[in-house]
Write a structure and sequence with these properties.
The protein is mainly β and about 500 residues long. The chain has five domains: about 1-110, Immunoglobulins (Immunoglobulin-like); about 115-220, Carboxypeptidase-like, regulatory domain (Immunoglobulin-like); about 220-300, Immunoglobulin-like (Sandwich); about 310-400, Immunoglobulin-like (Sandwich), CATH 2.60.40; about 405-495, Sandwich (Immunoglobulin-like), CATH 2.60.40.1120. Helix content is about 5%, strand content about 50%. The chain has two helices and 42 strands.
Length: about 500
C-alpha cells in the first residue's frame, strides 16, 4: 500500500526524456537503435527497485520517453555494427528531477572493430575450422585474468574474421584439435605460446585490422593415468571424477573406472588435477599440480580426503548483528567459491573446505563494515586466509560507526565527469571502497572503516581494475590522502585520471 502511494506520488512528477543517438566519430544520427532507459540506483542504495523504458530511434536518430518517474538512469543504445560486449561509448547518464526539464540526451555510439587473418600450419598449409579468439585482460574482484571478447572459426580458405569488437587493444590466439593423437597447440600472434611474448594489437574504431596471420605447430597429445585412493584405507575409490585444467581455461576429464583413471588429449604443459567424489554427501576431494612433458604421464596418485569445516562467529561488538542471516561471506580459492552459512545466533560455518589459501569476500547490508578478522589468536592483516593446516576458529568483527565521503569528480578543465570510478584504499583496511559518479560528477561512499586512505578517480578504467594494487600503483601520486574518522562525513572533490581503459599492467608483450 505504502509503496503504491509512493509510486503515485512520483508518477505525478513524471517528465519527458528525449534525445538522439549519433555515431561517435562522424556525429551522424544512428537510425533504428534500440534505446533503453534503465534506472541506475546509487551504489549506496542497491536495494532500490529498477525502472525500465524501451524504444527505438527514428530516421533522424531521435528517441523519446514520456512519463518517466524521477530518478537516476542510464540511457543505453544498441544497433547493428556497434559492439554489445562492452557498454563503454554507448551509455549516457540521465537525471530526472520533479518539476525540472530534463536536458537533451545524446548517446554517442562507437562503431565496432574487426580483426581478420589466416591460420596456417608449419608447412604453410591452410587450416580450416581453427578456433581464433580476441582476448583482453579483465578484472574480477581485483584479480586480473585473460578474457575472451570475441571469437571466430577459420573457413575452408583458412581465413577468419572476428567482428563486433569494442575498439581497443587485444591479444589474438588460435588453436585447433587435429585428431585423437595430435593437436595444434594454442598459439598467440605472432607465433608465441606464452602471452608475455605476444603482440598487443590495436583494433581501430569502425575499421579492420588485417593480416593477423597465425602459424600453428602440430604437437602430440598425451595421456595422464593414475588412481584415486581413499586416505584412510589406501584403496582405490569409487564414484570419482578426475579433471585436468590449465591456467588458460582448458579442461578435460573422466571418471575413475575399476581402480584407475585416464585423461586423454593433453598437450605438454602444467595442469591442476582435481578429483571429486560424487554421492554420499561426503564432499571428499583431492588436488595435485602436474607437468605433462613429451610422453604420457603415469603413476599419478590422488588421495581423497574430507574437506575441512571452518567455523566461527560474526559479531557487532559483543552482539549478534541485526539480520545476521542477510550477511554473506565467501571463501574464494583458485578453483573454489565456498559460501559460509550464518545462523540467527551469528555462528558461521564453511563446509567441505579443501586445504588451500583463500580470500575472504563478503556482502553486507547498509550501515555495516568489517572491522577485524581473526583466525585463532592471529589478526589477519588482509583478506588472505591460510587454511593449509588444521583450522582455528574464525572471528569476524563488524562495526556500525563507519565514515562517509562525498564530492564531485572533475577533469583537468574543471568539468564534471560522469561515470568516473572512485576508489578508496589503504594498507590496513580489509576492503577497497568504490563508487561511480553520476551525470553531475557527484559520488558518495558510505560505511568506511575509520583509518588512513588514499582516494583516486578514473574516468575510463577497466571494470574491476581499481581494486588491483598493481593497476593503481602508477597513479598513486595523484591520490588524495584522507583520514576517515568514526561516524563522520567529509567532502572530497577529485580530479579524474584520464584515459586508462586500455591499460594492462604486469604483462609483457610486443607492440
Amino acid at each position: 500500500m505504502i509503496r503504491g502511494l509512493l509510486f503515485l506520488a512520483m508518477a505525478a512528477h513524471a517528465q519527458t526524456v528525449q534525445g538522439v543517438t549519433v555515431n561517435s566519430v562522424t556525429h551522424k544520427p544512428v537510425a533504428g537503435a534500440i534505446v533503453q532507459l534503465i534506472s541506475a540506483a546509487p551504489e549506496q542504495d542497491a536495494e532500490a527497485e529498477l525502472e525500465l523504458y524501451r524504444g527505438r530511434s527514428d530516421e533522424a536518430g531521435r528517441f523519446r520517453f514520456d512519463r518517466v518517474v524521477p530518478g537516476h538512469y542510464r540511457a543505453i543504445a544498441d544497433a547493428p555494427g556497434f559492439p554489445r560486449a562492452n557498454l563503454a561509448g554507448r551509455v549516457a547518464r540521465v537525471s530526472v528531477a520533479p518539476g525540472a526539464t530534463v536536458p537533451e540526451v545524446t548517446i554517442a555510439m562507437t562503431l565496432a572493430a574487426v580483426i581478420s587473418g589466416r591460420v596456417v600450419d608449419q608447412d604453410g598449409d591452410l587450416i580450416a575450422y581453427a578456433s581464433v579468439e580476441a582476448l583482453q585482460y579483465g578484472y574480477q574482484s581485483g584479480k586480473k585474468s585473460l578474457q575472451q571478447m570475441g571469437n571466430a572459426r577459420s573457413d575452408d580458405r583458412g581465413e577468419y574474421r572476428i567482428f563486433g569488437l569494442m575498439p581497443g587493444r587485444y591479444y589474438v590466439r588460435a588453436q585447433m584439435r587435429a585428431g585423437a593423437t595430435a593437436t595444434y597447440a594454442p598459439t598467440f600472434f605472432p607465433g608465441q605460446r606464452d602471452v608475455t611474448q605476444a603482440s598487443l594489437l590495436e583494433a581501430p574504431t569502425g575499421g579492420e585490422l588485417h593480416s593477423i596471420d597465425i602459424m600453428l605447430h602440430q604437437e602430440e597429445l598425451h595421456n595422464a593415468t593414475g588412481k584415486v585412493v581413499d586416505a584412510q584405507t589406501g584403496q582405490a575409490a569409487a564414484n570419482v571424477y578426475v579433471m585436468a585444467r590449465t591456467a588458460d581455461g582448458f579442461a578435460n576429464g573422466g571418471a575413475q573406472l575399476a581402480d584407475s583413471f585416464t585423461i586423454h588429449g593433453l598437450i605438454p604443459g602444467k595442469y591442476v588435477l582435481t578429483a571429486q567424489e560424487s554421492g554420499g554427501g561426503t564432499g571428499r576431494s583431492a588436488r595435485q599440480v602436474v607437468d605433462v612433458g613429451s610422453a604420457d604421464l603415469t603413476g599419478v596418485v590422488l588421495t581423497l580426503s574430507a574437506g575441512l569445516e571452518v567455523a566461527g562467529t560474526v559479531r557487532t561488538g559483543s552482539d549478534v548483528p541485526d539480520d545476521a542471516t542477510k550477511i554473506q561471506f565467501f571463501l574464494q580459492g583458485d578453483d573454489a567459491n565456498i559460501a559460509g552459512h550464518i545462523n540467527a545466533a551469528g555462528a558461521i560455518t564453511f563446509h567441505n573446505v579443501r586445504p588451500d589459501h583463500y580470500h575472504l569476500l563478503w556482502t553486507l547490508p547498509k550501515g555495516i563494515y568489517v572491522k577485524s578478522i581473526k583466525l585463532g589468536d592471529r589478526v589477519l592483516p588482509d583478506d588472505g586466509i591460510d587454511l593449509t593446516g588444521p583450522p582455528a576458529p574464525l572471528a569476524i568483527q563488524l562495526a556500525t560507526d563507519g565514515g562517509r565521503i562525498q564530492g564531485v569528480v572533475r577533469n583537468s578543465a574543471g568539468e564534471p565527469v560522469a561515470g568516473a570510478v572512485v576508489t578508496m584504499h589503504s594498507d590496513t583496511a580489509y576492503d577497497v571502497w568504490t563508487a561511480t559518479s553520476d551525470e553531475a560528477g557527484q559520488y558518495a561512499i558510505r560505511d568506511i572503516a575509520p583509518g588512513e586512505y588514499r582516494v583516486l578517480a578514473f574516468d575510463d578504467a577497466p571494470q574491476g581494475a581499481p581494486q588491483d594494487p598493481d593497476f593503481r600503483k602508477p597513479f598513486e601520486k595523484s591520490a588524495v590522502p584522507l583520514q576517515v574518522l568514526p561516524s563522520t562525513q567529509q567532502k572530497v572533490d577529485l580530479v579524474a585520471v584520464p584515459g586508462v581503459q586500455g591499460l594492462v599492467v604486469g604483462v609483457g608483450g610486443g607492440e
